[in-house]
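Is this the right way to post structure tokens for a design question? Let me know if I should format differently. Anyway, here goes:
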């Protein structure tokens, strides 16, 4: 019996790890984790970018369905509460409509949206709030009006070239200015940007732009005063945190854009600005 016990003890000693061996194994595991984590993080960001692109395409489909129901017209970025939109019910006092609640009925599960703040009810289940990298998905204050009405995407409101710039033609309706544009008014649709990853619901676009803006990563100033002279794109939403402002401006396609023909693709800041200001041309500064 004693011999059997001694034999078992020897086998355990032979198969047991020494402290040094255990530390080596732990070290190898730590190195593997340090190597794999950046790869996993990059893969997650890439997957989220693909999901965001899919959401943008669905939003593009909703614009097309809206146009079918409204004699070829597209939604405006904002219809302020000073007047009555021609294609939505009369606005009660203090209520405005925005592009995302105007198209909501054409996207599954969002038919109850009747004003801009209704998006807060669907923020966890709708492609209108469809970008998983939008930071308000994680840092959200329900008491903050801006948090409640900014879905992570912004729409531009210039259906015409800037050479034809006319306040009365902007897709932003308020007293004495703006109108609902026809879908065909957005010229060169395969080259003209419509909606992009943004920290605001509006993509106001400055007359000129360079990479020297002090505000980063969220906007790039152009001529004019901040905020009216700024381009509020979320410049590196789908890029690595190590990407610099200069890189996101010109060489890194760090965020996504929906174009007027319904396709969506990653873009740089420079490409996005040109897609709104001068489709098919490159007039951005350095």
């Amino acid at each position: 019996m004693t011999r059997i016990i001694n034999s078992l003890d020897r086998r355990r000693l032979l198969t047991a790890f020494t402290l040094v061996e255990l530390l080596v194994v732990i070290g190898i595991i730590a190195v593997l984790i340090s190597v794999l984590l950046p790869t996993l993080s990059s893969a997650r960001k890439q997957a989220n970018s693909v999901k965001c692109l899919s959401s943008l395409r669905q939003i593009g489909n909703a614009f097309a369905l809206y146009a079918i129901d409204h004699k070829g017209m597209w939604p405006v970025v904002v219809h302020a509460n000073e007047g009555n939109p021609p294609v939505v019910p009369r606005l009660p006092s203090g209520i405005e409509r925005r592009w995302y609640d105007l198209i909501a009925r054409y996207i599954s599960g969002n038919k109850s949206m009747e004003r801009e703040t209704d998006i807060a009810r669907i923020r966890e289940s709708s492609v209108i709030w469809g970008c998983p990298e939008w930071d308000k998905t994680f840092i959200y204050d329900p008491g903050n009006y801006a948090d409640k009405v900014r879905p992570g995407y912004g729409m531009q409101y210039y259906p015409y070239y800037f050479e034809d710039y006319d306040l009365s033609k902007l897709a932003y309706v308020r007293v004495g200015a703006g109108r609902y544009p026809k879908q065909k008014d957005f010229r060169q649709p395969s080259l003209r940007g419509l909606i992009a990853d943004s920290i605001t619901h509006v993509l106001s676009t400055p007359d000129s732009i360079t990479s020297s803006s002090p505000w980063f990563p969220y906007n790039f100033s152009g001529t004019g005063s901040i905020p009216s002279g700024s381009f509020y794109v979320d410049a590196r939403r789908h890029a690595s945190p190590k990407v610099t402002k200069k890189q996101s401006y010109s060489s890194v396609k760090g965020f996504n854009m929906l174009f007027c023909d319904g396709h969506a693709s990653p873009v740089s800041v420079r490409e996005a600005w040109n897609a709104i200001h001068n489709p098919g041309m490159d007039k951005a500064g350095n």
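Format looks fine. Someone answered above. Worth noting: The mean pLDDT is 80. The two ends are 86 Å apart (CA to CA).
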